Amino acid sequence: MNYSYNGQTVLHDADEPLSLPNAYDYCRQIAKHHAKTFYLATKFLPKRQQNPIFAMYALLRTVDDLVDLAEDKLSNGQLTREELNDSIEDWKTRLRAC
């Protein structure tokens, strides 16, 4: 499995949906790479609670990276508001399909 991070972001277009265990592993890798202290703190949680916490962190980190990237592209003219809105709707559709 490829854990590419596009520089310092977690943005990644999957070629195909991941199985649940692979998705949790991907989320764990995001936390491990981007939030080392947070990742270590989760080790104090019961094992059954760790994967949902990693998934929540990965979701919030991804949304944060999307917003940061969009702000940069809007400010330098690489993206219009309409394109941004279309991109948001596409992302929401893909998220709901999970």
Summarize this structure briefly:
This protein is mostly helical and 98 residues long. The protein has helices spanning 20-34, 36-42, 47-75, 81-96. It is globular.
Describe the structure.
The structure is a single chain. The protein is an all-alpha fold and 98 residues long. The protein has helices at residues 20-34, 36-42, 47-75, 81-96. Helix 1 (20-34) packs across helix 2 (36-42). The longest helix is centred in the middle third of the chain and has 29 residues, at 47-75. The radius of gyration is 15 Å and the shape is globular. Mean pLDDT is 86; it is low at 1-5. InterPro entries: Isoprenoid_synthase_dom_sf, Squ/phyt_synthse. GO terms for molecular function: transferase activity, transferring alkyl or aryl (other than methyl) groups. This is Phytoene/squalene synthase family protein. It comes from Chlorobaculum parvum.
The profile of the biggest β sheet is: none
Unreliable runs, pLDDT <50, ≥5 residues?
1-5
Helix proportion of residues, in percent?
A: 55-70%
Q: Which value, in Å, is the CA radius of gyration?
A: 15 Å
Assembly status: single chain
Apparent shape = globular
Distance between the termini: 18 Å
DSSP strand (E) fraction?
A: under 5%
Protein name: Phytoene/squalene synthase family protein
InterPro entries: Isoprenoid_synthase_dom_sf, Squ/phyt_synthse
GO molecular function: transferase activity, transferring alkyl or aryl (other than methyl) groups
